[in-house]
Amino acid sequence: MEERNLRNDLNVAGLSQTAGGEFHRVSIDGMAKVNGNLDCTSVNVNGTLKMHGALSAESATINGMCTLNGPLTSSRVRVDGLTTINGDLRSPELEVNGKCTVRGRVDGERIDIGGVIDIEGDVQCESLNVQGNIKISGFLNAGTVEIRLHTSSSAKEIGGERIDIRRKEQTGFWKSIGLGGTPSFMTSLIEGDEIVLEDTEAELVRGSKIHIGRGCNIRMIEYSGELVVDPDAKVGSSQRI
Length: 241
Hints:
Blueprint: H1 2-5, E1 10-12, E2 15-18, E3 21-22, E4 25-28, E5 31-34, E6 38-45, E7 48-51, E8 55-62, E9 65-68, E10 72-79, E11 82-85, E12 89-96, E13 99-102, E14 106-113, E15 116-119, E16 123-130, E17 133-149, E18 152-167, H2 172-177, E19 184-197, E20 200-212, E21 217-229, E22 234-240
Parallel strand pairs: 1-4, 2-5, 3-6, 4-6, 5-7, 6-8, 7-9, 8-10, 9-11, 10-12, 11-13, 12-14, 13-15, 14-16, 15-17, 16-17, 17-18, 18-19, 19-20, 20-21, 21-22
């Protein structure tokens, strides 16, 4: 960290192209193209950044548009604008209030989604909190998962200790845009210790304490402790294991 503080800053206000390098603070208010790796203490994108290389930073804040053709590694990532990462994303703290596409895997500790995120790979984290929209084409493995459904979200499979997926009545932004269909979640497998579900469609739900709420369509349930099924839910079969 001290070594990074001694580096020069990189400020782009107009149109600029660079080969990358090592910097202290990077600020993009104009349009920047980086052909190479970028290592810095902080990066703030209020304009447009297009990179062909890896981005490593203590903190990364995207308010404008950012396209990374390479991996992103940062202690803190916040996306309020539009970001596409053609690679893996590794960050202990990830917050998305805008729109983010990751064409790789995501590794973190705490992930908070208030906007929209589309992840093509697997997700590994301690906690996932979704108040927006999420699509995971791979596997989700987390300690705790809390998803409040505004539109249609999905994951290939989910594994965790505590999994809570429920509908949140549309208000404000989500009600105004009217996109993504009715609140729903689709997956093939949900496995955890404590599971609470609403408006969820799954092939198999396996756990200890399971509550299947309104709007669910579950083909098979395997439970070792307690099972509660709402009258407004469809369950093909269930068995104690």
